[in-house]
Structures are given as C-alpha cells and as structure tokens.
Task: inverse folding
C-alpha cells in the first residue's frame, strides 16, 4: 500500500476543504444534490430523483419523458412527483428534460468521498465509464462531445484518487463475456434466444419490474462497472499490493441509475461492497472546479496499470448500438472463423427508435439483431419475445435516447441533449481510435 500511496500523495487542496455535511444540499452544475450516501438499504425503496414543488411550473415535460409512467401529477395544480420508487428506473430523463430545473437528486456520495480522499489510510479508486470522457469537457467550455479521457485521468490524480483505474477495461471484458454467451446460445441452445444486453441498469430494473418472465433472455453478464468493482478488490488489490478492505471504489458514471446499481445488495462478489460510491459526470466536474484545477490545461495522462487498458470496442459502449457492434465483431469472427474486413458495423448504430439488421456470417448464416433506444421501444421488442414472435438473436437496449452519452447524469444543455451529443460523439470516437494504436 505504501507504494500505491507514494505514487499519489494526498492532494494539497484537501487540507483546507470544507466537506459538505451529510443531509446538506449542494448545487453542482445546475442540479441540486442532497448529501446522502445510504448504506445497507434496499435501493428499490429509495427515491433517487424528486421534484421541488417550489420550482415546478406544472409543464408536464418530465411526465412526457418518463419511460415508465411513474412521474405523474400529484396535486390539483399539476405539480409532478415520483409516485412509486419501485417503478422508477432512476434514469434521470425527467431531470434532464425539466426546463425549470425543478428536479433534484436525492443521493450524492460526494461528501463521503471527500472524507475518504482526506483519510490517509483509505485507498480511493476511480472507475470512470466510457461516456464520462465525452461529456466532461462541456463543463469546462469545450465543444459538445470533445474527448477528454487523458485530462480526466490527470484530474482524478490531482483530486487525490490513489488508483486511477478505468471502466473501459471491463467494457472490453463485458464484450468477451456477452459475445461468448451469445455464441453458446446460438450454437448450443442452452438458453433461450433472443439474448438481451444487461449493461444498462435502467433497462434491467425495467425488465425485472415489468417483464420478469423474460429473465432467462437477459444476458447473465454483469455490467462493466459491476465487473470492475469486484476485480478492483481482488485482482487489482493483489496487483497494487493494497488490502481490499482499505479500498474505496468510486464508480464515475453518466447515469443516475448506476447509483442504484452500485447499491444492489448482491454487489458484494469481492467479499466487500464491490462499489462503495457512485458519482455522475456533473458531480465530478463540480469537484474538479472546487479543487481549483485548470482542467483544460491538464496534460493527457494514461490510467494506472492492471485495470486501465482498453480498446475501441470498449469506448463505443457509450452510444446506442455500441454494445451490439462490439459483440457482433466477436460473434462474426467466432462463427465464421474469418476476420471482418471493416470493423465498423454502422448498420446497428442508432440514436432513436428501433434499428434492426441482418448480418450475413460465412459458415453460419444470418445473425438477426435489434437495437432499441429508449424503454418504450424496448417494451415493443419485449412484447414480441413474450408472444414467441421475436425473430432476433440479440437485442441491445439502452434506456436513455442515444445511449449513455445522453444519460441523466451528464451535463445539462437543454435543447441539445437528444441528438447532437450522440452524433458528434460517435464521430469523435471513431477518429480517436483511427489515430490510436492499441498495444
Ligand atoms: S418538467 Fe419540471 S417544471 Fe415541468 S412538471 Fe416536471 S418538474 Fe414540473
Ligand atoms: S428517473 Fe426515469 S423512471 Fe424515474 S421518474 Fe424520472 S424519468 Fe421516470
Ligand atoms: S442508457 Fe446509460 S446512462 Fe442511461 S440508464 Fe442506461 S446505463 Fe444509465
């Protein structure tokens, strides 16, 4: 552990930092957060978003964008509220689309995270998602979709994270696992088809709540963050020479639903809590500003070894169709025994609606796939499966329109979120990986 700490000594700004008290409220990047880091509670009983009736103008936008119908009128004046936390998938689309900033987050680990960063006996580990690095720059005046992965790693070190690991590492693992599972289902029929993706916690809660009979169609793979949490406290702890019990793992996500996922009771495969805290892109941006870090002047830095490396398949997880595209690359090569001439399978990329494709695979036949952006579209595909009429082998579902780049925890830019971020981001992802050589 000493070696690990020596690499990243406590950041100087922490000495004078006033830590927000539990229960206090802090506005970060335009959204109000309650400092509330729940422990040992069933997250299905918690409201992660709620409406401030002093600010609500009863316009109904939140209800319109809510994919489950759980955001409803709760007063005669038309004020909205989350009527049942069990049916809320915590996607935050209500918050992202409220034109009056009337919806706030009820769970924030930022106060607790500061306590851990200040504690010299705790090894704080960062695990940022692919989509964070395409949105964080916006909070510092950079154009929408600018890739700032290297500056993000540098900022995490300057914030005092002792180990800068990266969830893109396990996005690659997810592809290997999910693609292999699909091959098993296709070749051996040991589990039913179609196989649904399982990396989006909003979708998983939706399926568990509204389509529990389709459970066997969900991929058995954990999401990337649910894989890197336990890997950090087992393999990673061993590689870094750090006792797992001293680690505090921080999931950094574009997503409010990932707070729910990190708190799920079964997330303890390492023998400890696999994910100790989850923060959003907005909260990370606020922490960087509060530390006085000049983000745009930071050098580009690599993540720490052991759980840091990744490929282009990992980063496209952040857009609708990305998981499908990466899994198809694997399935194509495994089923055909050949190599794809062009790894870009653009036909599955989508930012709205349902996109379907038939991919011819030599020595196999045709792989039929569907990509659903948004839960209303996912529901249509679920109804087909339930009726035994689904023609697909593999279905990707992302709760947020266009995928995680438009997640409920991303910087708010009303009027732009729905599609411009997606389009500019997919272009930049491709440019980034055209330039980059992967060892
Ligand atoms: S979108 Fe905002 S202002 Fe409009 S009803 Fe919902 S909470 Fe109220
Ligand atoms: S978080 Fe999502 S599911 Fe929950 S009320 Fe808001 S829009 Fe609806
Ligand atoms: S699409 Fe991404 S950001 Fe949206 S709920 Fe799913 S994982 Fe979270």
Result:
């Amino acid at each position: 552990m000493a070696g690990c700490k020596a690499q990243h000594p406590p950041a100087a700004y922490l000495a004078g930092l006033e830590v927000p008290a539990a229960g206090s409220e802090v506005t970060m990047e335009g959204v109000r957060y309650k400092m509330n880091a729940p422990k040992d509670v069933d997250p299905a009983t918690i409201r992660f978003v709620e409406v401030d009736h002093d600010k609500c103008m009863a316009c109904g936008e939140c209800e319109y964008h809510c994919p489950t119908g759980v955001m409803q009128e709760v007063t005669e004046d038309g004020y909205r509220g989350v009527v049942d936390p069990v049916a809320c998938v915590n996607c935050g689309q209500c918050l992202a689309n409220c034109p009056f900033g009337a919806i706030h987050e009820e769970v924030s680990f930022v106060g607790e995270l500061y306590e851990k960063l200040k504690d010299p006996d705790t090894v704080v580990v960062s695990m940022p998602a692919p989509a964070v690095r395409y949105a964080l720059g916006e909070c510092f005046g950079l154009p929408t979709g600018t890739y700032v992965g290297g500056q993000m790693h540098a900022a995490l070190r300057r914030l005092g994270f002792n180990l800068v690991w990266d969830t893109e590492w396990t996005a690659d693992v997810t592809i290997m696992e999910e693609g292999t599972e699909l091959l098993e289902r296709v070749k051996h029929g040991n589990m039913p088809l179609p196989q649904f993706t399982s990396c989006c916690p909003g979708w998983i809660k939706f399926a568990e709540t509204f389509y529990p009979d389709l459970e066997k169609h969900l991929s058995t793979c954990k999401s990337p963050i649910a894989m890197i949490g336990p890997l950090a406290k087992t393999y990673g702890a061993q590689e870094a020479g750090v006792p797992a019990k001293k680690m505090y793992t921080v999931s950094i996500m574009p997503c409010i639903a990932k707070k729910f996922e990190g708190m799920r009771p079964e997330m303890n495969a390492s023998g400890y809590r696999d994910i100790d805290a989850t923060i959003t892109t907005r909260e990370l941006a606020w922490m960087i500003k509060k530390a006085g870090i000049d983000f745009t002047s930071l050098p580009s830095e690599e993540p720490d070894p052991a759980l840091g490396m990744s490929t282009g398949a990992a980063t496209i997880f952040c857009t609708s169709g990305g998981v499908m595209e990466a899994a198809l690359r694997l399935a194509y090569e495994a089923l055909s025994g050949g190599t794809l001439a062009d790894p870009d399978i653009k036909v599955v990329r989508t930012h709205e609606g349902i996109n379907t494709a038939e991919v011819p695979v030599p020595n196999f036949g045709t792989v039929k796939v569907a990509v659903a952006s948004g839960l209303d579209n996912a529901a249509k595909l679920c109804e087909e499966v339930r009726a035994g009429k689904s023609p697909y082998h593999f279905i990707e579902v992302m709760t947020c329109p266009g995928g995680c780049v438009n997640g409920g925890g991303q910087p708010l830019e009303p009027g732009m979120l729905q599609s411009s971020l997606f389009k500019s981001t997919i272009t930049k992802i491709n440019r980034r990986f055209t330039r980059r050589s992967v060892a």
The domain at 169-219+311-429 is CATH 3.40.950.10 (Fe-only Hydrogenase (Larger Subunit); Chain L, domain 3). The pocket of iron/sulfur cluster (ligand 2) is lined by residues 49, 65-68, 70-71, 82, 88-94 (CB under 6 Å).
